[in-house]
Amino acid sequence: MVKIARIESGEWQRWPEMDDYRAEWLTDVLVERATWRAGVGARKVSSELSGIIGAKAGYIWVRFWFRREDQVVEKYFTEKGQVIGYYLPVCMPLEQHGAHMRTEQLGLALWIDPEGRVTVLGEGSFEAAAQKGTLTPVAQEQAEHRIRELTTATAQRRFPPAFARNFMILVEDNR
After folding, report:
1. pTM of the predicted model, to two decimals?
2. Distance of CA 39 to the CA centre of its chain
3. Is residue 55 included in any domain, yes or no?
4. Which of 17, 64, 66, 71 is most buried per CB count within 10 Å?
5. Average pLDDT, stretch 148-175?
């Protein structure tokens, strides 16, 4: 079943698995960053992606709130700063309340690996929820429209935005 989940800026600082939370507005993009704590077991990005580990101790997650594009983009890095991939949740339009951002995720998402291969996540559960009436017709239409936009823009190398694509993490080797 599709779970419509709220995504909010600042939520990572409340996750017990994460620390070193930082957030900063860079023009009209809110950038959040957090590091997975020591002792956290490895977690897959999704059960739909075979074997891709997206979280374990030292991994760094960066979330971009692109107001102009009306899209959240997450970029995941290993503890050494190597890109694991991008997670693009399909969401309702972004809402801003002061410096705080939030949206509702509609069950579908894109995963883009470092080589640019795209995988649509959540299709089966999304279709089941649509057939059962769990999602409103407006949410279904929004999600279907948005996934088409995102896959087209990604295939044309227009998405994720250059700011996210070029954003890197430099990790000092303290050995």
Report:
1. 0.91
2. 23
3. yes
4. 71
5. 87
Strands (E), the chain: 5-8, 18-26, 29-36, 43-44, 53-55, 60-66, 71-77, 83-91, 95-97, 100-112, 118-121
- Reply yes or no: is the peptide bond before residue 160 cis, omega within 30 of 0: yes
Handedness of CA 10, 88, 136, 2 (dihedral sign): negative
The total number of structural domains in the chain stands at 1
Flag whether 173 is in a domain: no
1 contact partners, CB below 8 Å, separation of at least 6? 125, 128, 129, 132, 134
Is there a domain that residue 172 lies in?
A: no
**CA distance readout (Å), 16 to 55, 95, 130:** 13, 25, 33
Residue pLDDT, tens place only, 11-60: 999 999 999 999 999 989 999 999 999 988 899 988 888 788 999 999 99
